[in-house]
Amino acid sequence: MGEILCLNAGSSSLKFALFASEGSGEPQSLASGKIENIGIEPHLVAHDASGKTIAEQRWTKADKATHETLLADLLERIQKQVGKDLIGVGHRVVHGGMDFAAPVRIDDDVLARLDALCPLAPLHQPHNLSAIRAVRAVQPSLPQIACFDTGFHHEQPAVATRLALPRALDAEGVRRYGFHGISYEYIARQLGEIDPLVSGGRVIAAHLGNGASLCAMKDGRSIDTTMGFTALDGLVMGTRCGALDPGAVLYLFQEKGMSTNAVEHLLYNESGLLGVSGISSDMRALIESDDPHAKESVDLFVYHIARQTGALASSLGGLDAFVFTAGIGENAPEVRSLVAQRLSWLGVEIDEDANRRRAPVISTSSSRITVRVIPTDEERMIAIHTAELLAHAGTAS
C-alpha cells in the first residue's frame, strides 16, 4: 500500500515513526525518532529499524524553532525520503471526550469537536491538534487518523467513571475518562501474545513516565484506572500533582489569592516530582541525587503507586500480574524494586538480578503475582489503527 507516518506531539517533544503498510499484514517499522527540548534548544535524532542513527540536528534559541516550524521541517525530510508513497498520518490525541471511543478519520467537524476538549488536557491536546493542522498545511489531501488516549477506557462500568457530582454535570461529560489508553491497549495486545493465560486474568499495568498512571485490566479490557477527568489525577508525576483534595485548590483561590491561570500552571508544571524535590522532574536525576528532598519525592512517587495498586486490586477482585512500562517503568530498576517491596503483602516477590538485567519477567518462581516489564510502543499501535482505517476506507470506496 505505502507508508504511514505516526506522530505523538507533546508539550516539549515530538515523537515520530514511519511504518510500511502492506495491506493485510501488521505495519513494519522503517524509522523512528524524537525532537526533544522544543521551546528551549530542540534536538532531533532519528534511527532506522536497526537502530542506526540516520539523522541528527540541533537548533539554538536564536532559531526560534516552534512546534509548527519543526514539524514542517520533519514533514519535508520525510517527504523527500518516501516521495509519493506516504498514504496517511496517524496521531496520538490525548482526549476524545464522550464522543470518540475509537480511531477516526479527521475532518473539519472532528477537528472542531477535538478543539473544544483542549481545556480538559491543556498540556497535550493543543499540541496534538497543532500537529494535525501542520500536516494539513503541507498536504491538505493526505488522510489523517486520530487515535485517542481515552478510547481504551471508554467501556469501563459507570461506577468507575462517575464523579459524585450532580447528575446534570455527568450528562455534560464531567466524568472520569482515563488516559494513556494507546499504551495500555498495546500492552494488553502484547500480553495476549506472550502470556495468554495471564492476559485473560486480572492485570495492573503501570505506565510510569513524566506522566504516570495505572490501569486495571480484566481479560484485556480496562475496568478502572487512576487518571480521571483530566490527566492531573492519580499518581504523582513529573510536574503534575496527581490526586489532590479539591479543598486544597479552593484554598489556593480563596486564601492565597491565586488566579485560575496561576493555579493551573502550579498543578501542571510546578508540582509532582519537581515540586517535592525542588530539583528536577527527571527520575534519573532524583535517583542519583544525595539531596533528602530528592529521596522524599521518589518515596512519594512509589508510595502512591503502591497505594493505588491496592485500590485497583480491589476493583479487579484480586491480582494475577503486574506490568511495568514507559520511560521510568522500563528503565528504572530502583523504582521497580521499591514498588515491589511495598506490594509484598500481595505476594509480589521480584528477582533482583532479573530486575537489574531488565529481564521480561522479573518476579521469582515463588511469587504469587507475575511481574513483567513490557516496553510500550504507542506509535506502532497508532500505525495499526491507521492502516486498518485506511484499508477499510479503500474497501468501502
By CATH, the topology of the largest domain is Nucleotidyltransferase, domain 5
Order of helices and strands: EEEEEHEEHHEHHHHEEEHHHHHEHHHEH
> Which term fits the overall shape?
globular
The residue-averaged pLDDT reads: 91
Number of domains: 2
Q: In CATH's first tier, which class of the largest domain applies? A: Alpha Beta
The separation of the N and C termini measures 15 Å
Q: Are there runs of 5+ residues with pLDDT below 50, and where? A: none
CATH H-level name of the largest domain... which superfamily? ATPase, nucleotide binding domain
Output the structural class. Answer: alpha/beta
Proportion of residues in extended strands:
15-25%
Main β-sheet: number of strands, strand sense, barrel status?
A: 8 strands, mixed
How do the strands line up in the largest sheet? 5-4-3-2-1-6-8-7
Total number of strands:
13
CATH architecture title of the largest domain: 2-Layer Sandwich
